[in-house]
Amino acid sequence: MPELTPEVREKLITLAQQAFENAYVPYSKFHVGSAILTEDGDIFTGCNVENIAYPVGCCAERTATVKMVSEKGPQAKIKYIAVATKADIPCTPCGMCRQTIQEFGPNAVVIYKGDKGYEERTISQLLPGAFTDFVSLEDDGTHTSIQSGA
Ligand code: THU
Fold first, then answer.
1. How far apart are CA 64 and CA 77, in angstroms?
2. pTM above 0.85?
3. Pocket lined around ligand 1, Cβ cut-off 6 Å
């Protein structure tokens, strides 16, 4: 696991905690915030934004990731991503967010509250056997290999 200093860890958790104050959560009332440190040293934060049509809502981790890509461009990579909740209870990224983190941070370390306080796991630990490539069968019979992040 890449070196994560206590200072960076604390900073990202604090930023994630600040970010959940902006959460739009009239349905779940579950405020979530997230903070990303990119491989380039930039920081992006996000909160969950819900919708009356429930599946339309966006988790905090994906909000932060979409902000990162939108502001930095498609090559941006997540180095660390922290998740915090106002309820201050254990909360790990959902499956959809894990797949999104994998796409933009194949080496990312996720910081989240577990049963014994904040802990870190690599995205590979949280999403073993991730879907990262497939083969596209073209009309002319040729095959094209498609890989995540390529
Ligand atoms: N949520 C997040 O934003 N991140 C997580 O890691 C877990 C769940 C949001 C989605 C929804 O707005 C609310 O929490 C309840 O599921």
1. 12
2. yes
3. 25, 28, 30, 32, 48, 50, 57, 59-61, 83, 91, 93-94, 97
